[in-house]
């Protein structure tokens, strides 16, 4: 090959933008001789002939294969290029983390933040052109440029060219440009900002902040992103203002827009850029160009906290200057729903490029009009050989479904606007709350990332009870213990239902998960069946299983010396699996464990408030599956989890010995309950219990690392009560108040379920002079309640002593409220007490020391922000307290009987005859008009604080029982 070749145009990058730029150039100037330079391994990047596969779109910085495996159990085989990133897929566009969970921050406009999954190029002859051999590709990189219109490649070839088009993607592959050329071309540069640009940037910041005040005060980011290079300074994201000012039209830079419409953007950029290079396009003066550049960069910095600081970033919103001048600019960014009803009197980025070129896009007045009417002009087809009959059928069907979608949206919008006005006419006011917008309410202000933190701040502003609106739904947040107890405990009869959950409950669970069931007979039956195995008395009989699993946990901690997460998780899962199904999980990585973990992970995703549009607009669930992609996701997930639950159910029935399944299926209350219902009733105990117990134990380890002063008094108590000759047991609990105080403080300090599972009231109510409409979603903010300094002084400090004082605070709310209180709380508490006591008895917990002799830091606020919160990964040192204790643990393990048939997992149910009584054990409770309240035998917990004593009849009729010896006890599925 010759070392000196002459071309008319050189294109850097054979990916999306490069190939489309070449196609466009050849269309406008067919005789042009083009050279494409690319260092990759195939023409077209991930869309090349060698690596293309169905549904392939574009490279993504997020690993979609693991997410797809989690959600749908799909196996995705990917061809990975040298950039070490993976392509996304059609499914991934819907499922990717940023689309489902929004962003990893607590900023309001999260619903717009997403990675990108993109469609194949829409140019009809796209592949034909580039696989026909008409383009020469050098698999190399540019070494440098010279002033004599030469491009020097690293393979030794020098190319003469009139134009250079750089399509290099997001990476800064502009090494050939020195600092002088970078500044001249408007590329990122290490050069300091000039005073001119500093002034323009400051003015632009003010413009954006005034248009969108919410962007003026962004949240703290997890990682502060700094860049040594200044931003791109390109007009229309394509050309240098300095070069344009002097008439130099030798280069343009596409690829500066990364969006869900990349094919369309690439085509318009190529058309605009080529027209500019050929002198067929006029541009404004330099001052106007630079003002628009500054505004765009200010917008992206504020809008996209990560990428926007480095690039002129854009996902959905490609704003032109005229967009900022629009009076509706702030509203169009609130939610896609609003854009459905607003007139399209603003220019998107693509439309701006088209307008510059004198092209009429024929865009309709709004998106609804776009769906209902065909565009003027010639119809196009992506399938040239499709016959008219087929096209007509497809178009007719599509128009029919499109009309259905439009009708559903219009009906939903009308309902959202009119319903609140009618419901509130002539009634007391709703609780105060942040100002809401029409239709969407407070959606634009809500945080999907740790919302309980935001709600705690709003409690300080609006009081113990405040209101939020999300579409048609009224959400009442309870920010104090008093408000939560007053409503959820005292009025549990009307506050014990659940809000409708279309995705998690109806679609994924098929109405079978008790935790999401409304307050109806189905739920009462499920609770009654769970109560068979979860009463206080029954829970005490499981101590043998817990003691055995705890012994294995201790051995693992002493042997691994710091790798505690896996051991804690194995303990929690194995304990509950043994009780529920009669089988231990001795390794912690069994297929059963993986399946349960997967189901829990999915459920947390599906149940997250504000994630799925169908939860906000349930009528959309009537759409056909191809217009409702969440349905297919739900079907696949339900198929997987129901298969697992039924498998475990049948295996438990066949195993010898006692287990939850056998205990529950034979009671009278189980008559008429299907096996599938029974499978979910038992499975939810494992799903919820294993995850929450693990997280609580991890929180204890974190607290012990952060607050080492709690260890000495705890170990002193253990020495006094236990000594060194035996291990602690649950039976020691009454004699160890400090260990119990550590458990309570662990549950208070960082609650595992920070905002509880939402309740719903079945009747309209009034509280503190405010109206609580029937069907309101009630959110008790456990996080905020537990960090209230008025009840728990110095709340961020881990202080077990607070529970031992004479003026000890009221009990924590970690297990929930009212009839929806956690049914497995007694098992959970025993697990926490036993393992906290044993770990502190056998081990020392301290900081991890790195190779340089420094303590590895841990973050006391480092918790996940999902429905169930757990500490983010952290490191500690766990070492044996003494060789003597380690030997005792080993001896106890060797002597322990590990057969579930022998260690006590047998039915401990009551054998005495029970009969209703009218009187129980009573005690006074100050502060109530009638201060006589029933007390649960054994635990001392109050049955009810209802001043009218309605528990003696109606709801609680017959719940007080007496055994043959006359000792009263209490049973109710809500406790």
Descriptive overview:
This protein is α/β, with parallel strands linked by helices and 975 residues long. The protein has three domains: 4-372, 3-Layer(bba) Sandwich (FAD/NAD(P)-binding domain), CATH 3.50.50.60; 502-895, Cytochrome P450 (Cytochrome p450); 915-970, no CATH class. The chain is 40% helix and 9% strand. It has a five-stranded parallel beta sheet with strand order 6-3-2-10-11, with helices on one face. A hairpin with a 2-residue loop joins strand 15 (765-767) and strand 16 (770-772). The longest helix has 36 residues, at 388-423. The radius of gyration is 33 Å and the shape is globular. Mean pLDDT is 74; it is low at 49-124, 222-228, 318-347, 365-398 and 904-975.
């Amino acid at each position: 090959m010759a070392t000196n070749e002459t071309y008319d145009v050189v294109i850097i990058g054979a990916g999306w933008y490069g190939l489309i730029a070449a196609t466009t150039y050849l269309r406008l100037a067919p005789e042009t001789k083009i050279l494409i330079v690319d260092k990759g391994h195939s023409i077209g990047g991930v869309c090349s002939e060698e690596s293309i596969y169905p549904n392939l779109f574009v490279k993504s910085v997020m690993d979609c294969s693991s997410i797809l495996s989690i959600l749908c159990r799909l196996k995705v085989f990917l061809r990975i290029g040298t950039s070490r990133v993976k392509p996304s897929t059609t499914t991934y566009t819907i499922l990717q983390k940023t689309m489902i969970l929004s962003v990893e921050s607590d900023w309001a406009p999260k619903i717009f933040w997403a990675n990108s999954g993109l469609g194949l190029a829409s140019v009809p002859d796209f592949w034909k052109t580039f696989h026909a051999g008409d383009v020469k590709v050098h698999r190399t990189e540019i070494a440098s440029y010279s002033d004599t219109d030469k491009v020097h490649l690293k393979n030794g070839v020098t190319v003469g060219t009139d134009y250079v088009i750089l399509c290099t993607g997001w990476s800064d592959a502009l090494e050939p440009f020195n600092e002088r050329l970078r500044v001249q071309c408007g590329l990122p540069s290490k050069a300091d900002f000039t005073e001119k640009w500093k002034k323009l940037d400051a003015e632009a910041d003010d413009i954006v902040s005034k248009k969108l005040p919410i962007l003026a005060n962004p949240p703290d980011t997890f990682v502060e992103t700094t860049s040594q290079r200044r931003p791109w300074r390109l007009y229309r994201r394509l050309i240098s203002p300095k070069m344009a000012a002097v008439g130099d039209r030798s280069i343009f830079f596409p690829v500066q827009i990364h969006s869900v419409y990349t094919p369309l953007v690439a085509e318009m950029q190529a058309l605009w850029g080529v027209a500019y290079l050929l002198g067929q396009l006029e541009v404004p003066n330099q001052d106007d160009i630079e003002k628009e550049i500054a505004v765009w960069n200010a917008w992206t910095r504020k809008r996209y906290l990560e990428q926007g600081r480095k690039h002129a970033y854009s996902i959905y919103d490609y704003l032109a200057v005229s967009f900022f001048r629009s009076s509706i600019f702030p509203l169009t960014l609130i939610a896609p729903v609003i854009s459905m009803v607003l007139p399209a009197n603003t220019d998107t980025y693509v439309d701006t490029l088209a307008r510059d070129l004198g092209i009429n896009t024929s865009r309709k007045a709004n998106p609804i009009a776009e769906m209902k009417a065909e565009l003027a002009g010639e119809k196009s087809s992506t399938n040239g050989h499709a016959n008219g009959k087929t096209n007509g059928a497809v178009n007719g069907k599509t128009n029919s479904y499109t009309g259905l979608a439009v009708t559903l949206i219009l009906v939903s919008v009308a309902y959202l606007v009119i319903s609140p006005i009618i419901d509130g006419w002539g009634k007391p006011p709703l609780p105060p709350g942040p100002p809401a917008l029409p239709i969407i309410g407070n959606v634009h202000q809500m945080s999907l990332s740790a919302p309980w933190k935001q709600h705690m701040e709003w409690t300080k502003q609006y009081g113990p009870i405040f209101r939020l609106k999300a579409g048609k739904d009224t959400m009442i947040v309870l920010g104090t213990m008093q408000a939560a107890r007053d409503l959820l405990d005292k009025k549990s009869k009307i506050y014990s239902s659940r809000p409708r959950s279309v995705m998690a409950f109806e679609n994924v669970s098929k109405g079978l998960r008790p935790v999401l069931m409304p307050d109806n007979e189905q739920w009462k039956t499920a609770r009654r069946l769970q109560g068979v195995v979860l009463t206080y008395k029954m829970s005490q009989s499981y101590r043998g299983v817990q003691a055995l699993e705890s012994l294995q946990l201790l051995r693992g901690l002493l042997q691994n010396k710091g790798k505690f997460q896996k051991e804690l998780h194995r303990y929690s899962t194995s304990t509950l699996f043994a009780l529920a199904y009669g089988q231990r999980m001795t390794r912690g990585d069994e297929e059963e464990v993986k399946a349960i973990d997967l189901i829990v992970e999915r459920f947390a995703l599906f149940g997250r408030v504000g994630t799925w549009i169908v939860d906000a607009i349930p009528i959309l669930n009537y759409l056909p599956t191809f217009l409702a992609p969440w349905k297919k996701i739900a079907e696949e997930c339900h198929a997987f989890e129901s298969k697992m639950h039924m498998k475990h159910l049948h295996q438990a029935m066949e195993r010898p010995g006692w287990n939850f399944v056998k205990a529950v299926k034979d009671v009278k209350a189980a008559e008429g309950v299907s096996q599938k219902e029974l499978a979910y009733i038992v499975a939810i105990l494992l799903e919820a219990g294993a995850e929450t117990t693990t997280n609580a134990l991890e929180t204890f380890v974190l607290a012990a690392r952060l607050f080492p002063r709690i260890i000495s008094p705890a170990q002193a108590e253990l020495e006094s009560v236990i000594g060194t000759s035996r291990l602690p047991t649950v039976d020691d609990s009454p004699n160890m108040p400090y260990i119990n105080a550590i458990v309570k403080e662990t549950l208070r300090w960082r609650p595992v379920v920070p905002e509880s599972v939402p309740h719903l009231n079945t009747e309209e109510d009034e509280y503190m002079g405010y109206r609580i409409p029937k069907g309101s979603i009630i959110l008790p903010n456990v996080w905020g309640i537990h960090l209230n300094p008025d009840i728990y002084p110095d709340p961020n400090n881990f202080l077990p002593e607070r529970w031992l004082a004479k003026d000890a605070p009221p009990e924590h709310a970690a297990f929930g409220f009212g009839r929806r209180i956690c049914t497995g709380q007694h098992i959970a508490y025993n697990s926490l007490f036993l393992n906290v006591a044993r770990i502190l008895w056998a081990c020392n917990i301290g900081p991890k020391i790195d190779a340089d002799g420094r303590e590895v830091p841990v973050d006391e606020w480092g918790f996940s922000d999902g429905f169930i919160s757990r500490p983010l990964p952290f490191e500690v040192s766990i070492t044996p307290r003494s060789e003597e204790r380690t030997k005792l643990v080993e001896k106890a393990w060797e002597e322990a009987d590990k057969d579930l048939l022998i260690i006590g997992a047998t039915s401990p149910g009551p054998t005495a005859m029970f009969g209703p009584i009218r009187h129980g054990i009573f005690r006074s409770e100050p502060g109530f008009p009638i201060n006589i309240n029933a007390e649960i035998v054994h635990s001392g917990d109050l049955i009810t604080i209802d001043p009218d004593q309605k528990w003696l009849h109606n709801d609680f009729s017959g719940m007080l029982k007496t055994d043959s010896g006359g000792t009263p006890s209490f049973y109710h599925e809500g406790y």
